[in-house]
UniProtKB/TrEMBL annotation:
It comes from the Eukaryota. It comes from Coptis chinensis. This is Germin-like protein. It is found in: Secreted, Extracellular space, Apoplast. Oxalate binds at residues 105, 110, 115. The keyword Manganese applies.
Length: 216
């Protein structure tokens, strides 16, 4: 009997922890973010709903290509709660990703959202790596019209493997998915991670670590 109760409590605890890890369902129509509000709802305050207007819920320019003249050959145009205040608390957002030929969206993860990427133009090699200890790469070459899911919190990348430009449209299960680019976070952090940490972790000497730190 006691073990039954313990099992049930454990189950209840597991479920509630699982639920708490996600955005709670809204109990109101919307909460247009108001950075001046002192009453915060999961990160941002709400504008008086009577003052909400269509511009709080819209964004334009997604037909325009992003500037891919950078060392990666890619560009992300985010449309999340930072751009569209009406997305606050709703648990959805998108981004347009442009790729020059052979352009790369480098390994990164989103701490707060799974992602669905749809290829609108071109051919992308995409993949994600499962967590420890397997660290299995699950990848695929996507043609126009195909989509791929990147589970929340897993490291993933997208690379244009076609000869023309490529365009992807990403949908996220959070209004504020966040992004951590691995190379920038590890070698370009502010302040820098001590080089002894990185030389041991990556099994290289200090010159290699210094070199990588100058890159980010
Ligand atoms: C916040 O306050 C500033 C200064 O009063 C104002 O310019 C701005 O529009 C306000 N922001 C919102 C979202 O109401
Ligand atoms: C694209 O970005 C590069 C590098 O920042 C810049 O030199 C160039 O003027 C930009 N092109 C356009 C069309 O904005
Ligand atoms: C550090 O490692 C690199 C790459 O293995 C090597 O080329 C270089 O000579 C090493 N430098 C020192 C100071 O050991």
């Amino acid at each position: 009997m006691a073990s039954h109760i313990m099992l049930l409590s454990l189950l209840a605890l597991t479920c509630s922890v699982g639920v708490l890890a996600f955005e709670p369902s809204p109990l109101q129509d919307f909460c247009v973010a108001d950075s001046n509000s002192s009453a915060l709802v999961n990160g941002k305050g709400c504008k008086d709903p009577k003052l909400a207007e269509s511009k709080d819920f819209s964004f334009s320019g997604l037909h325009l290509p992003g500037n891919t003249s950078n060392f990666l050959g890619s560009n992300v145009t985010p449309v999340n709660v930072a751009q569209v205040l009406g997305l606050n608390t709703l648990g959805v957002s998108i981004a347009r990703i442009d790729f020059a030929p052979w352009g790369l969206n480098p390994p990164h993860y989103h701490p707060r959202a799974s992602e669905i990427l749809t290829v609108l133009e071109g051919t992308l090699h995409v993949g994600f790596v499962t967590s420890n200890p397997e660290n299995r790469l699950i990848s695929k070459v996507l043609q126009k019209g195909m989509f791929f899911v990147f589970p929340m919190g897993l490291i993933h990348f997208q690379r244009n493997v076609g000869y023309g430009n490529a365009i992807g449209m990403a949908a996220f299960g959070s209004q504020n998915p966040g992004a951590v680019t691995i190379a920038n976070a590890v070698f370009g952090s502010n302040l820098p991670i001590p080089s002894e940490v990185l030389t041991t972790a990556f099994q290289v000497n200090k010159s290699v670590v210094d070199f990588l730190q100058t890159k980010f």
